Amino acid sequence: MKIVVLNGSPKGETSVTMQYVAFIQKRYLEHEFKIFNIAQQIRKLESDEQAFKEIIEDIRSANGILWAFPLYILLIHAQYKRFIELITERAAEAAFKGKHTAILTTSIHFYDHTAHNYMHGICDDLNMKLYASYSAGMQDLFNEQERKKLLQYSQGFFDAIDRDAPASRVYSPLIRQTSEYTPGTDQVSFDNHGRKVVIVTDAEEQQINLTRMIGKIAAHFAGQVEVINLHNVNIKGGCLGCLHCGYDNTCIYNEQDGFTDFYNSQLKTADILVFAGAIRDRYLSSLWKNFFDRGFFNTHIPSFAGKQIAFVISGPLRQLPNLRQIIEAYTEWQQANLVGIVTDEADDSYEIDLSLQELARRSVDYANRKYIKPATFLGIGGTKLFRDEIWGPMRFPFAADHRFYKSHGTYDFPHKDYFTRIRNVLFSLLIKIPVVRKEIYGKLMITKMVEPYKKLLAKL
């Protein structure tokens, strides 16, 4: 059978993901694998419509489609997403309809589920028959048991194609019922107290609701507000995945475009950041995705720590809990404070006015208080994952991360917590005695658990 592989790595054939595909190829020589380096060749596909059509024709004649890609900032690479946008822009959806498909990713499992959820939604939107997703760890190919799992997954995909297996849709089609937003004339403004406010957007002239919401929230800040459109930022290309930034956070594009300077001089110096964009398919635009990807020159170091971040979004966010989680996870991992998210989904423009007013008020209030709400699992889990990886297998090439984590106490392993270690040894021995174990688990556990808190409250 013919399997078309859509490669989402900007590194093309030299990507880690493609080594996993090569392993599958070696084990299934009876099948034809046709690989297209989508992310690497996106500029050609944008400018050369015939080249795009040739890929679409191969997809149309294929028995199965494998979406294979590495994770980039909680999702797919910006250039891979641009290809997905082109499918709609050039009305090529019919080539995908009814095709059997599968998803293969490589990562260190940092929000791999949000990337898989997104791609599953895209496959449902294209009316494809998704067999399953497979999230491989970067080093899994070196492990015999993991190789067996990969082959089992691959065989299952081929079997599903052979028997024309049905697939249940997981994500409903998006319903876009947004009405035109007409901002009111009443305007309350809040003193910035000298704090720097920057609104970043990719708004285009025809995106009326988005541009009006940006104007409305900007007017709520009494001090200076800078509005920066990403279309006007000199961004030469997407993240190359070259890891040039690993040593000292210097991007390989530094001398070629203005992104790093824009990021460092205008965003890192801000107190309040408002990110404003419109939903494209099940995310924001590929330009916004490029913004997040290119921000990786900071590697795994939070670059917006202590800042207030608000989102203004045009489109059906309420139907996209996966996108909301991406926003929440990104903000928490950045050690910033998510002030809130306002969309144009309300039927009443006045309600949107009030929401934007409150978003501006809280942004200033939180900035004045220097308030950062406690992280949930989204932030804590991600931080611990990076902590462990940078301490271990990823210390090289990410030398800058290691220096930062070491100097900022990120390596918070309990190596020297001797009190806890002694207590654990002592109680592990005591609970082996039946009468002691019965007393501890029967009566003392609950009361002793809160005893230190009661003592603290008494002192306070």
TrEMBL record:
It comes from Sporomusa silvacetica DSM 10669. It holds the Pfam family FMN_red. Residues 1-108, 214-327 form the NADPH-dependent FMN reductase-like domain. Transmembrane segments: none annotated. The keyword Flavoprotein applies. It comes from the Bacteria. This is NADPH-dependent FMN reductase-like domain-containing protein. Keywords: Flavoprotein, FMN. Gene3D superfamilies: 3.40.50.360.
